[in-house]
Amino acid sequence: MNIDFQERFRSLLIHYGRHVLVVFVVVLLVHDVFGTHGFLAMRRKQQEIQKVKTDLDRLNKENAALEQDVKNLKTDPQTIEKIAREEFGQSRPGEIIIKLPAQGPTEAAAAKP
Question: Pick from 77, 73, 103: which is nearest to 92 by CA?
Answer without folding.
Answer: 77
